[in-house]
Specification:
This protein has about 230 residues and is of the alpha+beta class. The protein has four helices and eight strands. β6 and β7 form a beta hairpin.
Length: about 230
């Protein structure tokens, strides 16, 4: 740049240049966002980490790379989470659905994000939480959060583009969550079921409606007991 050589190996026989590869961008991804080269007696800038490898193998001063890692997040906007569908449709008399459950499933709200065209879908994430009412009654929540593309026919799509402040009318993606609430902390079992439910929802060859899998677990699968802690279904 400016007529100066970019060779880091000063006065050496073999030239050394710094190159980088731009990764595929999607939301909430740790990535190297800044690079700085310092000398032997210099300290890394605040927030940077030093790579202890001398880049200069020639006769010049020692040179070291410092890098900064941050969460790479595309343009996004958040909205208040709400329940889109539930099973059962009505509350159990002794087990009502808490009004605050959407806030625990998606504590950051529903995130609408504008991704690059080459972006990859992030893997679904699993989380747990515990709700306690005024009487000390506990509900154990298990949730799988994922992203899906927003249909072009979505009635709120123009507002989302406006809130994002982007002129690019590219495909937008929205965070969603499927959750189970139980009196029992069967987190491992619920993770398997919710993950399987998510995979089934993506399979084009599924013969049964997804509601059938939910009703089967809720109404047909026997509850384990002390004498029979394992329930096997064929």
């Amino acid at each position: 740049m400016g007529g100066a050589s970019a060779d880091l190996n000063l006065f050496g026989r073999i030239s050394t240049y710094l190159t980088f590869n731009r990764g595929l961008l999607y939301g909430h991804t740790p990535a190297i966002t800044d690079l700085v080269i310092i000398g032997k007696d210099q300290s890394p800038p605040p927030g940077f980490k030093k790579l202890n490898m001398n880049l200069n193998k020639g006769l010049g001063p020692s040179l070291y790379i410092c890098y900064k890692i941050a969460i790479v997040k595309p343009p996004s906007v958040s909205y208040r989470a709400s329940v889109l569908s539930r099973y059962p449709k009505t509350n159990y008399e002794d087990f009502p659905l808490p009004e605050s459950s959407p806030l625990f499933c998606l504590p950051l709200g529903v995130c609408v994000e504008h991704w690059e065209s080459s972006a990859q879908f992030p893997l679904p994430t699993f989380s747990t939480f515990i709700l306690t009412n005024a009487y000390g009654f506990k509900m154990y929540g298990s949730a799988v959060t994922f992203y899906e593309p927003i249909k072009r026919t979505h009635r709120s799509l123009p507002r989302m583009w406006e809130d994002l402040g982007t002129e690019d009318r590219a495909q937008l993606h929205m965070s969603k969550c499927i959750c189970m609430l139980s009196r029992w902390p069967f987190f491992s079992a619920f993770k398997v079921f919710l993950s399987s439910l998510y995979r089934i929802s993506l399979s084009p060859g599924t013969l049964l409606p997804i509601e059938r899998y939910i009703s089967n677990l809720m109404s047909d699968v026997l509850f384990p007991s002390i004498s029979r802690p394992r329930v096997m279904m064929e």
